[in-house]
Design goal:
mainly alpha, 5 domains, single chain, 5 strands, five-stranded mixed beta sheet
Length: 677
């Protein structure tokens, strides 16, 4: 209080000073000055004309939040914020007079000013200038010789900083505000250390994802220096760390860091994706990578080796630019599909669909899961990935796949009666009235299988069960899309010899069965499908569906409940489509369960399969799965991690996270190509 007299007038030094940086002594002195200048809080025009930022201290003295104060003085909250941080002044005389009148009314109703309350409100927006603890942390960081932008650290620096942060956060159990104030980017290192994507971290902690992105980018204009905001962020982070079982694994953190070396996780670089796509196009590869010859495979292998830095860092953009490149990454490891799926813990069917190019991956979430899978396996196989090993796997694959030399044939289901009769006669002649069913003939003429199946009067699913082979393989053999492997042809030859003995072989029987199996009226099928889809649309919404629907209504996001979406091969019914079912930007599937058990996991896999069908037709649609489990013993994070390890077509998963879903949809609202009112 010794320097009160120096505040008697707004001198040049004070005009330049950011009032948020006042220390305790200056804060009290400035309040005394305000009391004098405003004639005991009755005349405010002169003060505000000289220094609009004085509104900050007047608000604190009034004991009001920014929102309340803005409403009381008749200005927008955002404009008040800009004035309080010194980015805006009040220039218009008319506005000054209106604010002056409003302030008179506010302070006329205050009999005693609560200085303690004023001090607390001021601390919420105060900028830290002198703090011994903050300065001590900054000195420790300087001694570590780190780059100004922590994203530019090398691996050794990252490891050292993570170990240091582990100690400062009590083994990742808290996040002190002084750490955050000393270096905002430490929140990025914390996030990487616990292996989380930015969208997931922001959603679970409860902070704005876009603001977090700017903070992690170390942008000067977005640095958080005020005590209040730092305190709120750190309290939320600490609460999240303490309420979840955070398991720290340095190896996993390193994998995440390698993924995030030059960019943030879960975000693809559009320019980089375009460049990689151009590189792959220049190799003139076949549309289906399974049709590559050996020379093309070698060229692609070397190019992938270059892009992945000798199979150490798999960019997200490599997966999103061409998803079936996963085939090459698998063959580089020298693994069969079955071996890879066991090692990666993913369903065989999912891998098969992606390697065929039927399920393109466009979004960062699913791509990131594949990146993590390959990064982990590549790390364990460091130094063991060679062209020779990959070529052996490729040759084995070509033998199994048998796509070389294949000529696609018209399937029986699309033939007319005359064409079917001609095929029967040809097969009968080739096999000498079905007496010679050698494996060589089966490989050369796969329609033998089709004809015998029709003679048995069996559909493809029924016949596949009889012979013990997957129906997808049977379909491909019958249409010539895939050449039968030697092993399969020998097995099938013996099986068909057994089956043919049990039936009467004649052209009449074949044609009769052909008519029965393949000439079902399409109109009958279509009518049944239409009835079923109509019934699904009219089904009463569940409690959980209504919760999500009400959420979307509250956020003013258009949607269709029980939407029938055309997925080209079939029409799928989804719980919610946003904004419509004709051209959805996003779909939501909602699951309810009493317990987290095998049945629930199966439901989630079924949902993921529906999303897979959708993404074949509409790869850019965002897929969200919202699950509500009424189980008090549920450990949410463990449940989510378990489900996420099993699904690959679900972009975002929420379990009992209604508020997180709301925050996510709010952030997604601007990104979706919607015409919102």
């Amino acid at each position: 209080m010794q320097n009160i007299e120096k505040f008697d007038e707004f001198n040049d030094e004070l005009k330049l000073k950011d009032l948020r940086k006042l220390n305790d002594e200056e804060f009290l002195a400035f309040i005394t000055h305000l009391r004098t200048t405003t004639k005991n809080f009755t005349e405010f025009s002169r003060v505000l004309e000289e220094k609009g930022q004085a509104l900050l201290l007047l608000r604190c003295l009034a004991g009001m939040s920014r929102r309340e104060f803005a409403k009381s003085i008749g200005i927008h909250e955002e404009i008040l914020r800009q004035i309080e941080v010194g980015k805006r002044e009040i220039r218009k005389r008319g506005k000054l007079e209106k604010i002056n009148e409003s302030l008179r009314e506010i302070f006329s109703n205050i009999s005693v000013i609560d200085l303690e309350r004023a001090r607390e409100l001021f601390k919420e927006v105060a900028v830290v200038t002198e703090n011994d603890e903050v300065e001590k942390i900054r000195n420790e960081l300087r001694e570590m010789d780190l780059p100004e932008d922590l994203r530019e650290m090398n691996e050794e620096q990252f490891v050292n900083l993570v170990e240091w942060l582990k100690e400062k956060t009590n083994n990742f159990k808290s996040f002190p505000k002084n750490l955050f104030l000393a270096k905002n980017q430490l929140i990025l290192i914390l996030r990487c250390a616990i292996g989380m994507t930015r969208p997931s971290f922001a959603r679970k902690v409860g902070i704005n994802e876009e603001t977090l992105r700017f903070v992690e980018m170390n942008r000067e204009e977005n640095k958080i220096t005020t005590l209040g905001i730092a305190k709120r962020w750190c309290e939320k982070v600490t609460k999240f760390l303490q309420s979840n079982e955070i398991s720290f694994d340095l190896e996993k953190s390193l994998i995440v860091w390698r993924i995030l070396k030059e960019k943030q996780v879960g975000e693809k670089d559009a320019q980089k994706e375009k460049e990689i796509r151009k590189v792959l196009e220049d190799l003139h590869l076949p549309q289906d990578l399974r049709d590559m010859n050996e020379q093309q495979f070698v060229l692609l292998f070397e190019k992938v080796r270059e892009i992945t830095e000798n199979f150490t860092l798999v960019p997200l953009e490599l997966i999103t630019s061409r998803s079936d490149i996963i085939l090459v990454l698998r063959l580089a490891l020298g693994l069969s599909r079955k071996e890879f799926c066991i090692k990666a813990g993913i369903p065989l069917g999912t891998l098969r669909h992606i390697e065929r190019g039927r399920t393109p991956i466009r979004n960062g979430g699913p791509a990131l899961r594949w990146v993590k899978i390959f990064s982990s396996i590549f790390a364990s196989e460091a130094g063991n990935i060679t062209l020779e090993k990959a070529l052996r796997a490729f040759r084995t694959f070509k033998g199994e796949n048998g796509s070389e030399g294949c000529i696609e044939m018209k399937p029986l289901i699309k033939m007319n009666l005359e064409e079917a009769k001609e095929i029967f006669r040809k097969v009968k002649e080739e096999t000498k009235n079905f007496s010679e069913l050698s494996f060589e003939k089966l490989r050369r003429e796969p329609r033998i299988v089709s004809v015998i199946r029709v003679l048995l009067n069996k559909s493809i699913p029924e016949f596949s069960r009889i012979i013990g082979k997957d129906e997808s393989w049977l379909r491909r053999w019958e249409t010539g899309k895939v050449k039968m492997s030697l092993k399969s042809s020998i097995f099938l030859s013996e099986k068909l010899k057994e089956l043919i003995r049990e039936i009467k072989v004649s052209e009449e029987v074949f044609l009769e069965n052909f008519m029965e199996l393949h000439h079902v009226k399409p109109s009958e099928i279509n009518e049944n499908v239409k009835k079923m889809l109509k019934a699904l649309r009219k089904m009463k919404a569940t409690e959980s569906e209504l919760e999500v629907a009400n959420l979307l209504t509250e956020l003013n996001i258009p949607f269709v409940l029980h939407a029938n979406v055309d997925c080209k091969t079939k029409v799928e019914n989804f719980d919610i489509a946003i904004p419509n079912e004709e051209s959805p930007d996003c779909v939501i599937e909602i699951t309810e369960a009493k317990k987290f058990n095998g049945n629930f996991r199966t439901k989630m896999l079924v949902t993921d399969h529906k999303f897979q069908i959708l993404k074949k037709a509409l790869p850019c649609v965002i897929t969200i799965s919202f699950a509500k489990i009424n189980d008090s013993s549920l450990v949410k994070e463990k449940a989510k991690n378990m489900i996420l390890s099993e699904i690959l077509n679900t972009d975002f998963l929420f379990i009992n996270e209604k508020e997180e879903l709301k925050n996510f949809l709010l952030g997604l609202k601007e990104k979706l190509t919607l015409k919102l009112e």
